[in-house]
Amino acid sequence: MEKLVLECRNICKSYKDNEVLKNLNLVLESGKIYGLIGRNGVGKTTLLSVMTAQNPATSGEVTINGEPVWENEKELKNICFSREIVGGTPIAQMKAGEYLKAASYYYPYWDKELAERLVKEFDLNTKKSMMKYSKGMLSVVTIIVALASKAPFTILDEPVAGLDMFARQKFYRLLLDEYDKTGRTFVISTHIIEEASDVLEEVIVLHDKKIILKENTQDLVERCFHVSGLETEVEHAVKGLHVYGREKTGRGIGVTVMLSDGEKIDDSCDVSIQPVNLSKIFLALCEKEEGL
Fold this sequence. Notes:
Layout lengths: L4 E11 L2 E12 L3 E5 L6 H8 L7 E6 L2 E2 L4 H4 L2 E4 L13 H11 L5 H10 L13 H15 L3 E5 L7 H18 L2 E5 L3 H4 L5 E6 L2 E7 H6 L1 E6 L1 H7 L4 E8 L2 E7 L13 E4 L2 H8 L7
Parallel strand pairs: 3-8, 3-9, 6-7, 7-8
Antiparallel strand pairs: 1-2, 1-4, 4-5, 9-10, 11-13, 11-14, 12-13
């Protein structure tokens, strides 16, 4: 598959007086599974819609290999943004079979056989109006469109919303299988962070209108720790380090530390040093940074 690079440069997006994204920069390379995480209302869906030319940026530019995406049919064929189907809209009134057929015309790389296999895999009744679907079954439709599109850049916004644990695991298995076979690039926006962490090669954190972190997931987890104990001991142990998410723990405090190359926590202090998972790292990053 051709190597492609999708780049967002100085993206700003406002709705009247509400500024959602400000001077945001992001580079996505081919052949990776990215996870986009952020608090509710932070602008994840807005970013994804701008990135895929479904929503114009107020300023800035999105390109693929240097070519603008906006109103560029040549580059848009490389992108699929499969997003939530909202009840009550004209699309929701369609039968699932009709919607999938329309998608097959829209996406030039559509894999009909894969779509049919996924319909059976998820036991989807394609003759039923989607407005009668549960939230989970609507998510199944978005998953089928995303995977069957075969788009080199495939973006899913909360794809497992409403799915039970077994259906979510099925989705992750199918995603990894498709990724292994094709090397496609996937971007997944999700709130179920820890469950998806084993699937995400890189994690992107959106906070305060910009990207505050983009890093290999495993590398990030391996250099973050939770340090707790009496306040004076913790202060000595993490002095000079990048500290996030300060929290009171009874008589003491707990902080999350993100180490850079060559840095280490002073383990001669009377503190507890524990590894942290991706969910804890996200919570700490999105709280006010503290300087100790």
